[in-house]
């Protein structure tokens, strides 16, 4: 009989003082974390993991922690401007917050594999809340926590010259915007889950991706979600690659602002369904076509069911992000 020992793997990125947001799981030097290379668009070499992690139906025995906000399987990801999902090059990865990062100022990306029973218990209790029917007990966890500053350009106060792909940037260490986020991979040898935690988010875009050199906004904003490597299986957290991604701390699929939770062995988000890579909450309804002929609903079993149903005669079919809704038209009064 095979026995799987309790195991924890933690990956964290941090710049400056360690963040203490209560939504984050423990990380840092006191937890025995290791650090990724200080390199623009850098990554670790392949990190062997002692328990295979199933991601979109495929087992992986190693992973890469990438400085640009990605944990990948099979190959490191050095690209700094996020592409829209799906990416069909066969590279599977989770993107807690994929954006251009240079951690050579003072930034550190931490990661570890651990057997800490206290953290295993905490993760198991959280997963029981989010997936009450699974009776899940964590035996392996990988956590990546990040507090990353963005290199934005030249400033007027305490400065430091930092080399990058375009030469040298002069960076103000006092006012450089920072983001804080964390990815947690956990498995019991069969089921696999990923928890994404978000602390304060202040920038969306690196300068090389078109971001404003003072604010870190504009250009091509960060991507958050999952990519299986094929054209069918992927997921976008709402706001990805739009200016709204800066508000990801206010969003959730488990009623805890700043936290998103997913089963990833076969991919299923807690609290709802996936429809064409978008999240739909349990019992939420929408129309999938521009004439509002097919109404869809996210059922409690995680499936989306669609059937023919038109808008009421007093309502108009209107576009709403990726779907359609029936609403009272502008200027109408009933």
UniProtKB/TrEMBL annotation:
Keywords: Signal. InterPro entries: Alpha-tectorin, NIDO_dom. GO terms for molecular function: extracellular matrix structural constituent. The keyword Signal applies. Residues 96-267 form the NIDO domain. GO terms for biological process: cell-matrix adhesion. This is NIDO domain-containing protein. It comes from Xenopus laevis.
């Amino acid at each position: 009989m095979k026995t799987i020992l309790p195991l924890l793997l933690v990956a964290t990125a941090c710049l400056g003082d360690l963040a203490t947001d209560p939504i984050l799981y423990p990380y840092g030097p006191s937890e025995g974390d290791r650090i990724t290379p200080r390199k623009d668009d850098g990554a670790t070499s392949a990190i062997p993991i002692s328990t295979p992690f199933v991601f979109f139906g495929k087992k992986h025995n190693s992973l890469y922690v990438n400085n640009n906000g990605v944990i990948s399987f099979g190959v490191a990801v050095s690209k700094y401007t996020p592409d829209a999902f799906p990416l069909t090059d066969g590279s599977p990865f989770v993107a807690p917050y994929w954006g251009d990062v240079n951690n050579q100022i003072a930034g550190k990306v931490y990661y570890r594999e651990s057997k800490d029973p206290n953290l295993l218990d905490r993760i198991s209790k959280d997963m029981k809340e989010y997936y009450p029917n699974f009776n899940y007990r964590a035996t392996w966890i990988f956590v990546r926590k990040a507090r990353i500053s963005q290199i934005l350009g030249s400033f007027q106060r305490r400065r430091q010259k930092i080399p990058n792909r375009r030469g040298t940037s002069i960076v103000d260490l006092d006012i450089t915007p920072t983001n804080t986020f964390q990815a947690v991979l956990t498995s019991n040898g069969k089921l696999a889950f990923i928890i994404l935690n978000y602390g304060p988010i202040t920038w969306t875009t690196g300068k090389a991706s078109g971001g404003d050199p003072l604010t870190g906004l504009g250009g091509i904003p960060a991507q958050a979600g999952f990519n299986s490597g094929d054209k069918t299986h992927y997921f976008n957290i709402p706001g990805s690659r739009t200016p709204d991604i800066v508000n990801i701390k206010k969003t959730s699929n488990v009623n805890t602002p700043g936290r998103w939770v997913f089963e990833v062995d076969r991919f299923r988000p807690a609290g709802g369904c996936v429809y064409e890579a978008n999240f739909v909450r349990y019992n939420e309804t929408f129309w999938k076509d521009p004439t509002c002929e097919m109404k869809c609903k996210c059922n409690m079993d995680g499936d989306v069911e669609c059937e023919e149903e038109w808008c009421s005669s007093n309502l108009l079919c209107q576009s709403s992000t990726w779907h359609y809704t029936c609403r009272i038209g502008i200027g109408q009064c009933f």
